[in-house]
């Protein structure tokens, strides 16, 4: 019996009912079939072992597709884990975080990866890839999965599995290697031939083709300040026994989460106070520039920093970059003809710098106010004059770009980068995406304070991410200091706000697969029902409400 399939962007075909996506990809793409790592069928992602039983639209996913890219990164992670397990069977392997265009991974703290180790691991990985072992996805009853994890010494996976309410667990089997992954893997190990390991003591960077490195695995740029922030956060979570979600869930389920909330929030306040002290001690600093990607908590952080600066006797004045937008008629246009509000060229840099110079020289300045209804800049009537105890806080997307305040000497500036750089991972082999954390935050905020459902947020998200890649991330190493706004407990709070909304997204919608991915991710976290311990000045309050600061 035949069924009709539409191979999106290619052609229509009649194929035998029950044919697998893998066989179909071989028929269509010939010797190039291993470029395609998975498929999207009617807005749902599938492994290539999926059989076709009805008329469907099929989009095969390569590494240039966001979901295909995820499959590639997870599959190369599996190959790395297998290689390390074969070479160092008594060591624990951890996939830690993205750094630039690669994944940072390591073994136990007691076993730093030497340069000779790197050569051996990479060679073993190439052997595993050449062997082209089949990757099977098998569903097991929870008790059987627990038995497999216990037998393989996966203590943190076991801890997570025992803390969640799931009857069945999907486990990947590759010959004698068993592992669990949040997401999908390729059909075999031979799909990930392009990779390279870079020495990054005490671990390694796994490099592979990606948009970030223009699909050139030799194009890696170190981000030492970001790496230091990740390591500091990881060390702190280790002290609290909160490196993985299983340990967090135990504390939630045992009624100990209030202590974790208080400790986490106190840690944030301590870091903010330390930054304020650094600024106070540097008598040359007149301007504090704050930047970070969407939903990193910039507004709350700026206000908390101002409070701590006031404790030190400084009375900062905040300037919004939004008020220095060019009149809409003069806004640069994107290639599609729409206004480009993300580019630094949309800001009147000349006026901004002139006002900053006049303020620093003790003159009166009337700050502008941008009218978003008329699209024009207006006089605000707010006259400001500064003295040595009135530093300026500038918060916005371009806060770290040297062009923003090019008239002001560097010695007079203090630059801060803020983002939700989570180091809490699901387990040692499943990292949590910092981008997903920010997306979930933004969905909750947009629904509560801007009247937008998750679909609207998802529609805008690609453009937001493109702006971040272009205007924020290239300058993050310009920062004098970085602030990690992630809160180890926040997913346990945010999930109840967003899961009901995500479940309303229909299968017919192009964002259905993204909604399902986020729902499955959030289901790993136990619910935090009681939220009165979350202080009103918490960064989380910027998204869930109840903030003591005026934010919107």
Task: Please characterize this protein's 3D structure.
Its EC number is 6.1.1.3. Residues 287-485 form the Phosphoribulokinase/uridine kinase domain. Pfam families: PRK. It comes from Tissierella creatinophila DSM 6911. Helices cover 37% and strands 18% of the residues. It is α/β, with parallel strands linked by helices and 552 residues long. Among the domains are: 2-62, Ubiquitin-like (UB roll) (Roll), CATH 3.10.20; 237-316 and 391-544, no CATH class; 317-389, no CATH class. The longest helix is centred in the middle third of the chain and has 25 residues, at 257-281. The radius of gyration is 25 Å and the shape is globular.
Query: Globular, elongated, flat, extended or rod-shaped: what is the shape?
Result: globular
Helix content: 25-40%
**Structural class, judged by helices and strands?**
alpha/beta
Gyration radius from CA atoms, angstroms: 25 Å
Low-confidence stretches are none
| Strand fraction | 15-25%
Strand count, sense and barrel status of the largest sheet are: 5 strands, mixed
Q: Helical region count?
A: 15
Q: Going across the biggest sheet, name each strand in turn.
A: 2-1-5-3-4
Averaged pLDDT, please?
93
List keywords for this structure.
alpha/beta, Ubiquitin-like (UB roll), five-stranded mixed beta sheet, five-stranded parallel beta sheet, 19 strands, 37% helix, globular, Threonine--tRNA ligase, EC 6.1.1.3, kinase activity, Thr/Ala-tRNA-synth_IIc_edit
